[in-house]
Design goal:
Number of helices: 6
Number of strands: 2
Order of helices and strands: HHEHHEHH
CATH topology: NADH Oxidase
Number of domains: 1
Amino acid sequence: MNNIIETLNRRYATKQFDTAQTLSDKQVHILTESMRLAPSSFGLQPWKFVVISDPQLKAQLKTHSYGQDKVTQASHLIVLCAADDTTESDVQRYIDSIVSTTHADPSQLE
């Protein structure tokens, strides 16, 4: 994970996972932080990520994933949940967050 750009340049679709290999807590943390910090065009980041490592839950999800073995082979399954609309309350929550963290003038953000 030290040279992530080099690794990403060699990306390919994984056909199967080695079930003897497991991501460490540190690796999961780096992955989830990189996803959390990914920018969106408006700064709203209208997504959430669910990390699943429970074998029973992954087995249940396999039936909803066209029976793909990869769902149960991977040590961790990351599910991307994306909002398909943005509401006024989403924007207000975003503005409130900026105000609370930067002490910006709310009238300047409207």
